[in-house]
Design goal:
Length: 138
Amino acid sequence: MKNVLLINAALTILLLSDTYPGSTHDKRIAEATPYLLPVGRRLLQDLGFLAFTLPQAEVIMPTRTPRGQALTRTQKAAKRRIARRRVRLEHVNSSVKRCRIVHDTSRLRKAGVRDRVMEVCCALHNVRVRLMPWQPMV
């Protein structure tokens, strides 16, 4: 099962998409989830969202390595800076998956139950961040 999360610099989950089967591409989930960012915001995303853009946001994405070629030193340095920031987002994903019902295989087949479980797990993450704030993402 897949969801797309929108996370702010304080590492709080702002938006949770609907739950989709694991075979659904990340870009399709993002396109199906309507959300607006304030003008001038930066959107940090990985290569799974390669052609996805929001008109009012600046998209920050690592450069893709061309087939049969190597990246330049400046491109590698930029990619490393982005990766350092993305690690914090992966920590948020692992914090949500700390609730084992999200991480393990679920046999809950009733409509809407998987969405509700994910909502509760994201809310628990937000409560944990509020009670014990993490270092904000730079």
